[in-house]
Amino acid sequence: MVRYSVLASGSTGNAILIQTDTTSILVDAGLSGKQIEKAMHEIGVSADCLDGIVITHEHQDHVKGAGILSRRYKIPVFCNQKTWDGMEHIVGEIKTGYQEIFCTGDRMEIGNLALESFAISHDAKDPVGYCVFAGNTKISVATDMGYVNAKMKQRIIDSDALIIEANHDVEMLRIGPYPWHLKQRILSDHGHLSNETAAEILTEVITANTQCVHLAHLSAENNMPVLAHMTVKTILEQEQFKVGQEFDLEITYPDKPTKLRSVRRR
Ligand SMILES: [Zn+2]
Ligand SMILES: [Zn+2]
Asked: Which residue spans adopt a coiled-coil conformation according to this UniProt entry (predicted)?
Protein backbone atom coordinates (compact mmCIF):
# COMPACT_ATOMS: atom_id res chain seq x y z
CA MET A 1 0.00 0.00 0.00
CA VAL A 2 1.31 3.43 -0.88
CA ARG A 3 -0.22 6.85 -0.20
CA TYR A 4 0.37 10.06 -2.05
CA SER A 5 -0.79 13.64 -2.28
CA VAL A 6 0.06 16.37 -4.77
CA LEU A 7 0.78 19.04 -2.14
CA ALA A 8 0.90 21.82 -4.72
CA SER A 9 1.23 22.03 -8.47
CA GLY A 10 1.78 24.88 -10.93
CA SER A 11 4.29 27.60 -11.77
CA THR A 12 4.08 28.92 -8.19
CA GLY A 13 5.41 25.67 -6.74
CA ASN A 14 5.38 21.90 -7.01
CA ALA A 15 5.70 19.16 -4.40
CA ILE A 16 4.35 15.61 -4.24
CA LEU A 17 4.36 13.44 -1.14
CA ILE A 18 4.65 9.65 -1.61
CA GLN A 19 4.73 7.38 1.42
CA THR A 20 4.55 3.82 2.64
CA ASP A 21 4.18 2.81 6.28
CA THR A 22 7.92 3.22 6.79
CA THR A 23 9.16 5.62 4.10
CA SER A 24 8.15 9.12 3.00
CA ILE A 25 9.59 11.16 0.16
CA LEU A 26 8.87 14.37 -1.66
CA VAL A 27 9.16 14.59 -5.42
CA ASP A 28 10.22 18.26 -5.75
CA ALA A 29 10.03 20.88 -3.02
CA GLY A 30 9.25 24.02 -4.98
CA LEU A 31 7.49 26.09 -2.33
CA SER A 32 8.89 27.69 0.82
CA GLY A 33 9.71 25.31 3.67
CA LYS A 34 6.79 26.79 5.65
CA GLN A 35 4.29 26.29 2.81
CA ILE A 36 5.33 22.66 2.38
CA GLU A 37 5.09 22.00 6.13
CA LYS A 38 1.63 23.61 6.11
CA ALA A 39 0.41 21.56 3.13
CA MET A 40 1.69 18.36 4.78
CA HIS A 41 0.02 19.34 8.05
CA GLU A 42 -3.29 19.76 6.17
CA ILE A 43 -3.23 16.10 5.17
CA GLY A 44 -2.05 14.98 8.61
CA VAL A 45 1.61 14.28 7.81
CA SER A 46 4.60 15.79 9.58
CA ALA A 47 7.72 16.89 7.68
CA ASP A 48 9.72 15.06 10.39
CA CYS A 49 8.99 11.78 8.66
CA LEU A 50 10.63 12.66 5.31
CA ASP A 51 13.40 10.30 4.22
CA GLY A 52 14.34 12.01 0.97
CA ILE A 53 13.60 14.79 -1.50
CA VAL A 54 14.00 13.85 -5.17
CA ILE A 55 14.27 16.67 -7.69
CA THR A 56 13.00 16.68 -11.28
CA HIS A 57 14.86 19.82 -12.45
CA GLU A 58 16.41 22.99 -11.11
CA HIS A 59 13.62 25.50 -11.82
CA GLN A 60 12.63 27.58 -8.79
CA ASP A 61 9.08 26.16 -8.74
CA HIS A 62 10.57 22.69 -8.14
CA VAL A 63 13.46 23.36 -5.74
CA LYS A 64 12.67 26.49 -3.71
CA GLY A 65 12.25 24.77 -0.32
CA ALA A 66 14.57 21.79 -0.85
CA GLY A 67 17.58 23.31 0.94
CA ILE A 68 15.59 24.63 3.89
CA LEU A 69 13.80 21.32 4.48
CA SER A 70 17.02 19.34 4.04
CA ARG A 71 18.81 21.44 6.66
CA ARG A 72 15.87 21.66 9.05
CA TYR A 73 15.00 17.94 9.09
CA LYS A 74 18.31 16.42 7.92
CA ILE A 75 16.81 15.03 4.72
CA PRO A 76 18.98 13.85 1.81
CA VAL A 77 18.34 15.50 -1.56
CA PHE A 78 18.53 13.32 -4.69
CA CYS A 79 19.17 14.65 -8.21
CA ASN A 80 21.51 14.26 -11.15
CA GLN A 81 24.75 16.23 -11.40
CA LYS A 82 23.62 18.87 -13.89
CA THR A 83 20.47 19.56 -11.88
CA TRP A 84 22.61 19.88 -8.77
CA ASP A 85 24.91 22.37 -10.54
CA GLY A 86 21.87 24.35 -11.70
CA MET A 87 20.09 24.51 -8.34
CA GLU A 88 22.98 24.99 -5.93
CA HIS A 89 22.65 28.79 -5.95
CA ILE A 90 18.90 28.55 -5.19
CA VAL A 91 18.86 25.94 -2.44
CA GLY A 92 22.00 27.06 -0.58
CA GLU A 93 24.38 24.78 1.23
CA ILE A 94 23.47 21.14 1.54
CA LYS A 95 26.02 19.28 3.63
CA THR A 96 28.07 16.46 2.21
CA GLY A 97 26.29 13.29 3.06
CA TYR A 98 22.92 14.89 2.30
CA GLN A 99 23.60 15.26 -1.43
CA GLU A 100 22.75 12.12 -3.34
CA ILE A 101 23.81 12.46 -6.95
CA PHE A 102 22.45 9.83 -9.36
CA CYS A 103 22.77 9.22 -13.09
CA THR A 104 19.52 9.60 -15.02
CA GLY A 105 18.06 6.13 -15.57
CA ASP A 106 19.69 4.55 -12.50
CA ARG A 107 17.39 2.67 -10.17
CA MET A 108 17.68 3.76 -6.56
CA GLU A 109 16.10 2.90 -3.25
CA ILE A 110 14.90 5.12 -0.44
CA GLY A 111 13.63 2.93 2.41
CA ASN A 112 11.13 0.54 0.88
CA LEU A 113 10.47 2.74 -2.16
CA ALA A 114 12.33 2.09 -5.41
CA LEU A 115 12.73 4.92 -7.89
CA GLU A 116 13.61 5.13 -11.54
CA SER A 117 14.31 8.45 -13.23
CA PHE A 118 13.89 9.00 -16.95
CA ALA A 119 14.95 11.87 -19.21
CA ILE A 120 12.27 14.34 -20.31
CA SER A 121 12.33 17.29 -22.71
CA HIS A 122 12.20 20.71 -20.99
CA ASP A 123 14.29 23.88 -20.90
CA ALA A 124 16.38 22.75 -17.92
CA LYS A 125 19.89 21.26 -17.61
CA ASP A 126 19.00 17.55 -17.32
CA PRO A 127 15.30 17.26 -16.39
CA VAL A 128 13.74 13.95 -15.36
CA GLY A 129 10.44 12.32 -14.52
CA TYR A 130 10.13 9.53 -11.96
CA CYS A 131 8.50 6.16 -11.55
CA VAL A 132 8.18 5.32 -7.86
CA PHE A 133 7.54 1.69 -6.90
CA ALA A 134 6.22 0.32 -3.61
CA GLY A 135 6.31 -3.42 -4.22
CA ASN A 136 4.59 -3.74 -7.59
CA THR A 137 2.51 -0.58 -7.18
CA LYS A 138 3.73 2.15 -9.51
CA ILE A 139 3.27 5.91 -9.25
CA SER A 140 4.65 8.03 -12.09
CA VAL A 141 5.38 11.74 -12.11
CA ALA A 142 5.75 13.44 -15.48
CA THR A 143 5.48 17.24 -15.61
CA ASP A 144 7.35 20.08 -17.33
CA MET A 145 7.65 18.42 -20.74
CA GLY A 146 7.66 19.97 -24.20
CA TYR A 147 6.84 16.66 -25.82
CA VAL A 148 6.71 13.00 -24.89
CA ASN A 149 8.30 10.37 -27.13
CA ALA A 150 7.75 6.61 -27.26
CA LYS A 151 10.56 5.97 -24.79
CA MET A 152 9.01 8.24 -22.16
CA LYS A 153 5.58 6.69 -22.71
CA GLN A 154 7.19 3.30 -22.16
CA ARG A 155 8.35 4.49 -18.75
CA ILE A 156 5.01 5.82 -17.50
CA ILE A 157 2.75 3.17 -19.05
CA ASP A 158 0.79 0.91 -16.68
CA SER A 159 1.05 3.19 -13.62
CA ASP A 160 -1.41 2.66 -10.78
CA ALA A 161 -1.38 6.42 -10.28
CA LEU A 162 -0.09 8.93 -12.81
CA ILE A 163 0.59 12.61 -12.28
CA ILE A 164 0.89 14.19 -15.71
CA GLU A 165 1.15 17.77 -16.86
CA ALA A 166 -1.82 19.46 -18.56
CA ASN A 167 -0.34 22.95 -18.64
CA HIS A 168 -2.36 24.97 -21.10
CA ASP A 169 -5.17 25.21 -23.54
CA VAL A 170 -3.49 26.02 -26.83
CA GLU A 171 -6.15 28.56 -27.84
CA MET A 172 -6.07 30.35 -24.48
CA LEU A 173 -2.29 30.53 -24.71
CA ARG A 174 -2.43 31.88 -28.30
CA ILE A 175 -4.86 34.69 -27.52
CA GLY A 176 -3.67 35.23 -23.93
CA PRO A 177 -1.50 37.99 -22.42
CA TYR A 178 1.93 36.30 -22.58
CA PRO A 179 4.61 37.93 -24.77
CA TRP A 180 5.33 36.18 -28.04
CA HIS A 181 8.71 34.72 -26.95
CA LEU A 182 7.15 33.15 -23.86
CA LYS A 183 4.29 31.65 -25.91
CA GLN A 184 6.89 30.19 -28.27
CA ARG A 185 8.85 28.76 -25.35
CA ILE A 186 5.79 27.08 -23.82
CA LEU A 187 4.70 25.60 -27.16
CA SER A 188 8.23 24.39 -28.04
CA ASP A 189 9.65 20.91 -27.55
CA HIS A 190 11.28 22.19 -24.36
CA GLY A 191 8.16 23.83 -22.94
CA HIS A 192 4.99 22.42 -21.45
CA LEU A 193 2.26 19.96 -22.48
CA SER A 194 -1.17 21.16 -23.57
CA ASN A 195 -4.41 19.60 -22.37
CA GLU A 196 -4.89 17.90 -25.76
CA THR A 197 -1.39 16.45 -25.87
CA ALA A 198 -1.68 15.19 -22.30
CA ALA A 199 -4.92 13.44 -23.26
CA GLU A 200 -3.37 11.86 -26.35
CA ILE A 201 -0.49 10.52 -24.26
CA LEU A 202 -2.95 9.18 -21.68
CA THR A 203 -4.76 7.16 -24.36
CA GLU A 204 -1.49 5.26 -24.85
CA VAL A 205 -0.35 4.79 -21.24
CA ILE A 206 -3.51 4.10 -19.21
CA THR A 207 -4.02 0.36 -18.63
CA ALA A 208 -6.39 -1.83 -16.60
CA ASN A 209 -4.08 -1.22 -13.61
CA THR A 210 -4.47 2.55 -13.72
CA GLN A 211 -6.62 3.78 -10.84
CA CYS A 212 -6.06 7.51 -10.84
CA VAL A 213 -4.74 10.19 -13.18
CA HIS A 214 -3.99 13.67 -11.85
CA LEU A 215 -3.66 16.63 -14.19
CA ALA A 216 -0.80 18.81 -12.97
CA HIS A 217 1.07 22.08 -13.51
CA LEU A 218 -2.04 23.84 -14.86
CA SER A 219 -1.27 27.39 -15.99
CA ALA A 220 -3.16 30.08 -14.06
CA GLU A 221 -3.24 32.33 -17.17
CA ASN A 222 -3.61 29.84 -20.01
CA ASN A 223 -5.83 27.14 -18.59
CA MET A 224 -8.78 26.53 -16.30
CA PRO A 225 -9.30 23.45 -14.11
CA VAL A 226 -12.75 22.79 -15.60
CA LEU A 227 -11.45 23.15 -19.16
CA ALA A 228 -8.42 20.90 -18.57
CA HIS A 229 -10.60 18.21 -17.01
CA MET A 230 -13.27 18.44 -19.71
CA THR A 231 -10.79 18.41 -22.61
CA VAL A 232 -8.91 15.37 -21.30
CA LYS A 233 -12.11 13.52 -20.34
CA THR A 234 -13.68 14.14 -23.75
CA ILE A 235 -10.65 12.85 -25.66
CA LEU A 236 -10.36 9.78 -23.41
CA GLU A 237 -14.06 9.00 -23.83
CA GLN A 238 -13.77 9.31 -27.61
CA GLU A 239 -11.20 6.53 -27.29
CA GLN A 240 -13.65 4.39 -25.26
CA PHE A 241 -12.07 4.92 -21.84
CA LYS A 242 -14.64 4.95 -19.04
CA VAL A 243 -13.49 7.93 -17.00
CA GLY A 244 -14.76 7.77 -13.42
CA GLN A 245 -15.45 4.03 -13.70
CA GLU A 246 -12.21 2.43 -14.82
CA PHE A 247 -10.10 5.14 -13.18
CA ASP A 248 -10.50 8.60 -11.64
CA LEU A 249 -9.42 11.75 -13.40
CA GLU A 250 -8.54 14.52 -10.97
CA ILE A 251 -7.19 18.04 -10.94
CA THR A 252 -4.30 19.32 -8.80
CA TYR A 253 -4.09 22.79 -7.25
CA PRO A 254 -1.47 25.50 -6.85
CA ASP A 255 -2.54 26.32 -3.29
CA LYS A 256 -3.98 23.23 -1.65
CA PRO A 257 -3.04 19.56 -1.42
CA THR A 258 -5.04 16.78 -3.06
CA LYS A 259 -6.45 14.35 -0.51
CA LEU A 260 -4.01 11.72 0.71
CA ARG A 261 -4.94 8.81 -1.49
CA SER A 262 -4.00 5.14 -1.06
CA VAL A 263 -3.23 3.00 -4.04
CA ARG A 264 -2.26 -0.64 -4.42
CA ARG A 265 -1.83 -2.84 -7.48
CA ARG A 266 -5.13 -4.64 -7.94
ZN1 LIG B 1 7.55 23.80 -13.33
ZN1 LIG C 1 10.30 23.77 -15.31
From this structure: none
Residues with a beta carbon under 5 angstroms from ion ligand 1: 61, 144
Query: Ligand 1 centroid vs 140 CA: distance in angstroms?
Result: 16
Instruction: Name the nearest CA neighbour of 132 among 118, 114, 158, 120.
Output: 114
The reply to whether CATH 3.60.15.10 applies to domain 2-263 is: yes
Ligand 2 midpoint to CA 1 (Å): 30
Query: What pLDDT digit, counting tens, does each position of 115-172 carry?
Result: 999 999 999 999 999 999 999 999 999 999 999 999 999 999 999 999 999 999 999 9
- The C-alpha torsion from 65 through 134 and 97 to 61, rounded to 10°, is -20
